[in-house]
Amino acid sequence: MPSTRLTFIAVATSFTAVASLQSLLIPVLSTIGTDLGADAVGQTWMLTSWLIAAAVATPLLGRAGDLVGRRRMYFLALGAVALGSVLAAFAPNLAVMLVARVLQGLGGAVFPLGFGLVRDAFPQARLAGAIGALSAVMAVGSGLGTVIAGPAAELIGWRGLFALPLVLAAVGLTVGFLGLERSTTRATGRINVLAAALLSGWLVALLLPLSAGNQWGWASPLVIGLFSLAALLATAWIAVELRSRTPLVDMRVMRLPAVWTTNVTALLTGAAMFGVWAYLPRLAETPNASGYGLGVDAGTAGLIMLPMLVAMASVGFVAGPLSRILPFAAQLTIGAFLSGAASLSIAVLHGNAVVLAVAAGVLGLGTGLVTSSTPNLIVRSVPADQVGIATGMNANIRTIGGAIGTTVFAAAIGATLGASGLPAESGYVTAFVIGAILAAVGGLVPFLGRTRPSRPNVRAIPIAESPLVEAAEAA
């Protein structure tokens, strides 16, 4: 079996394992909280601890992979996922569950490491298709928990849900040992410790209030103080990076038009995408007594979301070949507009399950185009020795967008809660209209910069290809 095939299988499996952990707990969060004795704040921490750990680990381990070898860091990150999944399945209390979630969050580094491994292993002619397919796998994995968690938990219990990431991580590790080759593309220098500390600090200070602001109160001194601290630390981080001879994140690369426009689009579309993912099932499950909800159970809500997963997977596997006639920059814009149209249609037409399923399918098409084109634009625009950190920062920006989106949706919907405890229809309408606007603006951003690959003014180390890769190119 060619090493390219083994590389793809290992990376795709690990992507699914890690991505599923983003949404696996959301449908059963209250059930887990009841069993572990966790109140609403504790339940929020189950999500926030994963989010913060992933946000910090993604760029740092991604950069470490650029420096000391992606294969080594890949095994470290995926091993943490496997250990965290075992610990979560047997967690006796909230404290142990939070430790497990932090370990699982370290797996976020698999994304930049995986893209780097694929760039090293695949010939240029097949690289775009491989990255597009992996992006689709990542997107499908992110939505997988929303679809299967509710019905699966009813059959095997919430603890059994962690068998999915555990088995996938085990497969990814096994295939990785067999097929992943040591990278011959290495960055020079070292990890800038001060820059790493400042980056970690502002990410934590930003994501913590975004995740818990609804419980703490947006006008509370703690939330305002953390946002202010995030701004100060981010400013200091940028200043340190610009002056450093060995930056953690090379700002010259981040300023490339193809990079910064793609990152801004990822932020905005990520906000829309995660907001819709989190609240479309809740809209469908709202009782009929509300006057607008469908009153379906978790299983039916999952079926409504199923077309989204099918569409995302389908688009991802054709995005590479499609780029020959429709450039990735155009795919990015079209995908953002489709996502916006889907969100707007949900805001206007949400009284029928079939209509919602169609909207979910359109959302999947848009999301598939966005998530497939984004890493391709990044990988094709940066030097080989910057792939890990560049794709890691892009993944982080999408994560930040997701946190912003779910927060905005929660605020818009929660502001209309009535005496019955149910939100008004206007709250959902407002939230999905906001999602449509965010996605549409994200689609316009690429027009502000040149989104075709640029030659960065940074010394790139050539990719060394194995004889198997050379043979594949010759074929």
TrEMBL record:
Q: Which UniProt keywords apply?
A: Membrane, Transmembrane, Transmembrane helix, Transport
Task: Give the location in the cell.
Answer: Cell membrane
Does Membrane appear among the keywords? yes
List the transmembrane segments: 45-62, 74-92, 98-118, 130-150, 156-179, 191-212, 218-240, 260-280, 300-319, 326-348, 354-379, 400-422, 428-449
Among InterPro entries, the record links this protein to: MFS, MFS_dom, MFS_trans_sf, Tet-R_TetA/multi-R_MdtG-like
Q: How does it sit in the membrane?
A: Multi-pass membrane protein
Recorded protein name is MFS transporter
**What is the originating organism of this protein?**
Agromyces tropicus
